[in-house]
Design a protein that fits this description.
- It is a single chain.
- 61% of the residues lie in helices and 4% in strands.
- The longest helix has 21 residues, at 88-108.
- Strands 1-2 form a two-stranded antiparallel sheet.
- It is built from nine helices and two strands, in the order αβααβαααααα.
């Protein structure tokens, strides 16, 4: 590495790779020994700094603007575990609301009596059921709807 180039880089506080000597002034640069000589050549423009093309942020700014609008935030662009994408609380809320709506519907249609409704409500609150289908299976297996039919037949008789 040329010592003058290194010295000029120190003066300009840049990398020696970015220092450019003017081809027509090479003899003048050779004569320059001191820092003040080099400063003079820099002031005249015989020694200059190479412009580096910085990585453009235009695309990043565009994406950022779109994300502020709520675009490009779908499931495909999320990183991390499934719980970082949809929180545990969010999944629980979705599940429990579905189960409770289903229970309410069964109670309104008088498929479930008050005691069975309460039992199923407590079980769902305790996280017993995986999903709505699981609850339906449980109701069928334990014949919780049959109690209603036997009550109707007794009332009719």
């Amino acid at each position: 590495m040329n010592p003058r180039k290194r010295l000029a880089a120190r003066i300009l506080k840049i990398s020696p790779k970015k220092v450019v000597f003017d081809e027509s002034a090479l003899s003048e640069i050779k004569e320059a020994i001191t820092r003040s000589d080099l400063r003079g050549l820099i002031a005249i423009g015989k020694i200059s700094v190479r412009k580096t093309s910085a990585h453009s942020r235009a695309g990043a700014r565009k994406n950022q603007a779109q994300k502020r609008k709520g675009r490009q935030k779908g499931r495909g662009s999320k990183k991390g575990s499934s719980t970082s994408i949809v929180s545990r609380k969010e999944t629980w809320m979705r599940k429990i609301r579905t189960l409770r709506k289903f229970l309410k519907l069964l109670r309104e249609k008088e498929v479930l009596n008050a005691t069975n409704y309460r039992k199923l409500y407590q079980k769902s609150k305790g996280g017993y059921f995986r999903n709505k289908r699981h609850m339906k299976l449980y109701i069928e297996e334990n014949k919780l709807t049959a109690a209603r039919e036997t009550e109707k037949t007794k009332a009719a008789a």
